[in-house]
Amino acid sequence: MNLFPKEKTIFKRPNAELIYIENFYETGIASQYFNHFKQNINWQQDHITVFGKTYKQPRLTALYATNDKPYSYSGLTMQPLYFTKELLQIKSDVEQEVMHQFTTVLLNLYRNGNDSNGWHADNEKELGKHPIIASVSFGETRSFHFKHRHITEERHKINLKHGSLLIMKGEMQEYWLHQIPKTKKVIGERINLTFRTIL
Ligand SMILES: O=C(O)CCC(=O)C(=O)O
Ligand SMILES: [Fe+2]
């Protein structure tokens, strides 16, 4: 039980709302989760197809869900494994904060600064219109960039820290793109969990 109120930063932008909670998990707990997921998740390097060309994804991923619904993006279909006890605990912590139920978590392991996640929106049709996406980060801080599709001045960054929670809602996936760019800095690993709802 955390007796300190969690500090929330709310970014209200045209067609989007983001909420960032830096200390969602305290450092010690976040480090335990990092080590646990590093060892126990079924990490895979899948191939994606973009504009007819096939590439190795520049990070490792895994999919877990409370149902058997697959998740498809960039020409790739992932079949989920069933949630583990640790993933269920985090899902329940996040659900209490967001007041929304999730079915699925996509995990990303960025092995170093060369791993990345290119400009995209989480707008697959199985997520429904205007999905709520909750993203938990463990390990190395990485910069999360987001830009509006039509308003060029609307371009922002948030450093996603160890133990943080970022919530994306509203029309964000329709009007904005986001990415985790590569960095030339020599940095360690980062694990990210993005909770989604696929019914
Ligand atoms: O690693 C992150 O913080 C973002 C992950 C992401 O955008 C995704 O998996 O769709
Ligand atoms: Fe995303």
UniProtKB/TrEMBL annotation:
Protein name in UniProt: Alpha-ketoglutarate-dependent dioxygenase AlkB
Outline the extent of the Fe2OG dioxygenase domain.
101-199
Is Oxidoreductase among the key words of this record? yes
User: One short Pfam family name for this protein?
Assistant: 2OG-FeII_Oxy_2
Q: Which organism is it from?
A: Psychroserpens algicola
Q: Which UniProt keywords apply?
A: Dioxygenase, Oxidoreductase
SUPFAM superfamilies noted in UniProt: Clavaminate synthase-like
Which InterPro entries would you find in this protein's record?
A: AlkB-like, AlkB-like_sf, ALKBH3, Oxoglu/Fe-dep_dioxygenase_dom
Q: Tell me, what is one Gene Ontology molecular-function annotation carried by this entry?
A: dioxygenase activity
Q: Where are the transmembrane segments?
A: none
